[in-house]
Design brief:
The longest helix is centred in the C-terminal third of the chain and has 16 residues. The strands form three sheets. A six-stranded mixed beta sheet has the order 6-7-8-3-9-10, sandwiched between helices. A four-stranded antiparallel beta sheet has the order 2-1-4-5, covered by helices on one side. A three-stranded antiparallel beta sheet has the order 11-12-13, with no helix packed on it. It contains nine helices and 13 strands. Strand 9 and strand 10 form a beta hairpin. The protein folds into two domains: about 230 residues, P-loop containing nucleotide triphosphate hydrolases (Rossmann fold); about 30 residues, no CATH class. The chain is α/β, with parallel strands linked by helices. It is globular and about 55 Å long. Helices cover about 30% and strands about 30% of the residues.
C-alpha cells in the first residue's frame, strides 16, 4: 500500500458564518493524481489552501505524511515538499524578472547558488521560457504568466503539486501545452491534486476524482473514468447541464459538457 501524503477527517471550514467546506474525508497517497471537481463556489480552492497549510480547518483534522497540521505548528517540511500554483498567477509572481521568479523558491530552500542557477535554467528551457528570462512578469501575457508560475514551483522539485483551476484564462495552445505537461507529470508518478471544473482536463490527467457539491460536501470519490461517466452525478454537482427541446412530437434532451450525450428521447 502506498504511503499516505494527506489524510483529512471530517474537515470543515467557514468564512465567518459562511460554510466553505463541510465534513470532508479525503486520503491522497504518494504518486496519485487526484482531481477535485465542483462548480464555482463549491469549496475547491479552499480545500487546496488547507492542503497547502494556508488555511486550517474550522473543525476536523489534516495530516501530512502522518503529522497533524495545526495553526502555529506548520512544519517546514510542508513548505519544502509542496508546491501550489494559484488560479491567478498575479497572486504569486512578485520578482523583478522571470529568472528571479524561478530562482526564488530554490534560494529559500538554501540551495547553493550554482544549483539554483542550474535548476532555473533547466526549468526555463523545459517550459520554453528562456527568451523571457529578463522580462518583468507583469509585462507578460496571461499564458506566459501561468507558465512562469508553474516554473517557479517546479524549480523547487516538490513532492506534491497543488494546482487551482490551472486552465483558467489560457488560450487553446497554452491549454494543450499545460495538458501535455500534466500528463507527463502523471506518467512520472508526481503526486498532484488539481482543483477544476474542466472535465476534459480531469479525464486526461487524473487517476481519481473527488466531487464537491454546491452544499460544500464531498459526494463522490473514486476512479476518474467511473466518476466522469456518471451523468446523474455530474448533473447534480452542476458540472454539466442539459435542456430539452421539441422536434415535432419528439422531445429531445441535450446534455452539455465535454462528455455530453444525446441519449434521451421521448415521444
Amino acid at each position: 500500500m502506498a504511503e499516505e501524503v494527506y489524510r483529512l477527517e471530517r474537515v470543515s471550514y467557514r468564512y465567518g458564518d459562511v460554510v466553505a467546506l463541510r465534513a470532508i474525508d479525503l486520503v491522497v497517497s504518494v504518486g496519485e493524481s487526484v482531481a477535485v471537481l465542483g462548480a464555482n463556489g463549491s469549496g475547491k480552492s479552499t480545500l487546496l489552501k488547507i492542503l497547502d497549510g494556508l488555511y486550517f480547518p474550522t473543525s476536523g483534522t489534516v495530516s501530512f505524511f502522518g503529522r497533524q497540521l495545526k495553526k502555529g505548528l506548520n512544519p517546514r517540511a510542508l513548505r519544502e515538499r509542496v508546491g501550489f500554483v494559484f488560479c491567478e498567477p498575479d497572486f504569486q509572481l512578485f520578482c523583478q524578472t522571470v529568472f528571479d521568479e524561478v530562482s526564488f523558491g530554490p534560494l529559500q530552500l538554501g540551495l547553493p547558488e550554482e544549483e539554483v542557477r542550474r535548476r532555473a535554467e533547466d526549468i526555463l528551457s523545459l517550459l520554453g521560457l528562456s527568451a523571457l528570462r529578463e522580462r518583468p512578469p507583469y509585462s507578460l501575457s496571461s499564458g506566459e504568466k501561468k507558465r512562469v508560475a508553474i516554473a517557479s514551483v517546479l524549480s523547487m522539485n516538490p513532492d506534491v503539486l497543488l494546482l487551482d483551476e490551472p486552465t483558467t484564462g489560457l488560450d487553446p495552445r497554452t491549454q494543450v501545452w499545460l495538458m501535455e505537461l500534466l500528463i507527463e507529470l502523471k506518467r512520472l508518478k508526481k503526486t498532484s491534486v488539481i482543483a477544476t471544473h474542466d472535465l476534459s482536463l480531469a479525464w486526461d490527467v487524473s487517476d481519481r476524482a473527488v466531487v464537491l457539491n454546491e452544499d460544500h460536501g464531498a459526494v463522490a470519490d473514486g476512479l476518474a473514468p467511473g466518476i466522469l461517466r456518471d451523468k446523474k452525478l455530474l448533473l447534480s454537482a452542476n458540472l454539466i447541464h442539459e435542456h430539452a427541446h421539441r422536434h415535432g412530437e419528439t422531445v429531445h434532451t441535450h446534455s452539455h459538457g465535454p462528455f455530453s450525450v444525446h441519449n434521451e428521447h421521448e415521444s
